[in-house]
Structures are given as C-alpha cells and as structure tokens.
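Researcher: Here's the sequence for the chain we discussed earlier.
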Amino acid sequence: MNKDPAGGLKAGLWITVLLGTAAFLLVAAIVSGPETAFEASLHALQLWWHIVFPALLPFLVLTEIMLASGASHGAGVLLEPLMRRVLKLPGQAGWVLVTGMTAGFPAGAQAAQTLAQQDRLSPQLTGRLASLSHFCSPMAILIVVGAGMLQDPAAGYVLLIAHWSGGLLAAWTRSRKHQSSDDIPSVPHHQHTSPLLLRAAQAAGQARARDGRSLGRLLGDSVSRSVQTLMITGGYIIIFAVLISLLQHYFPIVPGSLTSGTLELYTGAQALSHAFTGTTPTQLALLSALLAWGGLSGQLQSLSIVKERAISWRAYAGHRLLHALYAAGITLLIWKPLQGLLPPAAPAFGSIPAEYAPNGLSFSGWDSFVDLFLWQVVLGLVLVLAFSLTSRFFIQRKD
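Model: Thanks. This is the structure I predict for it:
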C-alpha cells in the first residue's frame, strides 16, 4: 500500500510547528525565570561532573580499547552459545551486554555502535542490542540511590539485583519474537571442531590485526570518543534538569516525582526518595521501575548514539517499560527475603552526596576514581566469567 505524500508532508509540517512552538515557550520560560533555570543547570552540571563523568569515563575508554584490541571478540566467542540460543544475538553481543551492565547507559549503546561501524552487526541487531544493554550504572544504584538518597546501602543491593534480573528477563522476553536467526552472523563450521578457548584467542588475534592502530593512536582515539560521548550525556542531563525545574515552577499541581521520573533518572529518584518516610517495599518497587525506565533523557542519550540504526523510540521505550515491570515485581519478591541477609553497611567508595547526606558530607567520584575503575573491571570480568560458564553449559547439553 502506497503512502500518501501529501499526508506525510502535512504530518511533517505539524511536527515542525509543534517543535518550534515548544522551543519558543522553553526560551520564554527561561528568560522569565533565569534564576530557576540557572540553579537547575548548575545542580545538573555538578551531578554530571562529580558522579557521571568519573564513573563512566574509565570504562568507556577501556571498552574502546578492548574492542580495538580484539578482547571483546574473544569474549564474543566464549559467549556465543548463550547469546545465540537465549537472546537470538551473535556472540559479540555478550560483551556489549556486559558493558551496559557494568558501566551503565550510554556505554552499552556506544559499544554496539562501535561493533556496527566495524561491520560486525547489522542495523537491526545494533538497535536491538542498544535497547537490551541499556542499564543504569551500578555506581549510581549503590552509591547515589542506595547509600545517598535512601541512606540504606542494603536497599541499593536489592535494587541492583532486581535491575539486572529484570533487564535480562526483558531481553529474553523480547527475543522470543525473533525466532529466526537469519540476520545473525554465522560461525564457520570448521571452528566448532577447535577448543573454545583456542577459538577465542584466534578471534582476538584476527580482530587486532584488522584494526592495526598503534597503542598511542588507539589511546588517543578512545579518550576522544569517550569524552565526546560524555559531553553529549552532560548536555542531555542539563537540558532535562532545566525543563523539569521549569515545569515544576509553572505547573506546581503536577506531581514532582511523576514529572521528574518520566524525564530524568536522578532527579526522579531524588523526588521518590523524599516522598516516603523510611525504606518501604512500595518505594523500592517504584525506584526499581524508575531505574529500569531510565528517564526520557537517558533513552535519548543512547538513541542519539545509534541514531543511524534501525530502531525507533517507540520500540526502545517499550523495552524500557517491560524492564520496569519486571524490575518492580522482582523487587517486591526479594525485598523481604534479602532484608535480613544484608546488614546495614557504609558506602564502598567515597562519601555520600552532599545534597542527600546529613552533616554536609561531600561526594565526588574523582576522589575514588581508581577504585571505581577497578571495581567496574572486576565486575565486568565476573559477568564475563558467569556468562561463559553458562555458555559451556549450553555446549555440553548440545553434545
């Protein structure tokens, strides 16, 4: 059925008018209330510089280096059975999934985009992979939300378990409709006769030979791309923080937690943490759903990286909603059993953010930069090992 060109032109005109009107109203609101916009942008800038930037920069650089050195391709061979059979994705998708789970968005989308630029993934697979690897940073869940906002580190571990479990369940659920694996790059048959570790080493060596960049150039390119990605992330955080502040200023009847949670992750989590007295199962379930949703700001950050790939915001948001439902349900199921097993503990890295902590304690991820980096590396290796052992289970069951 042919589309009506006139109808498409009319729809595009309406979108242009709406976007132009919204931009004009936003500028007018900022001009009429510059103090509100300035305070919101300053708070967002501090959040980005002290938490987001130091938590993401080392792992983004490491991801770029490992993709170029071939380590991710070797990990892809190890994870091939699990990714192909469970998620209907090629093996190298496993490294992208681990990156998203350990570094948070938009690191997963960045890793998927890098593989696509190396012609390792089709546009359809890149879009799917960017969607299922969209996780919140464990640093944000454990330190900012758990220890900082809730003043309950044990609750942070519950949220992290539910967040990861819900994301993997959502990825498995969405993969059920992708029964065909025709668009998944196939593994040559002769490779199956070699030991798994040997195939992984060969894949890593071949990928490194194809890249061919020197260490100095590779490090420079990795830092440059990572900083550029984080600059885009910071811009989104600041813009949405200003938008939320203006909406709450001009429309006070709209619940602040609803507006904040829909648009931006950290502001919404802060509003939810203040809406309850003490840590309750309902509060944790709502926070878990919010972390899985990621905020419109977080979704657009990832989509801006894979904008040339075959994925729409509607499909991306649908996956986030499914993740939110799973995460909230898992939180309600595991909160009581885990409550007694996880005694109160102090934050693992640094102090609690000043805006959430008593007695004016300050927080900066730069104070624990090395610890954050090492913690993420160890966590990533543990996830790769766990997924590899699961892959070996699939191989043995097939044999």
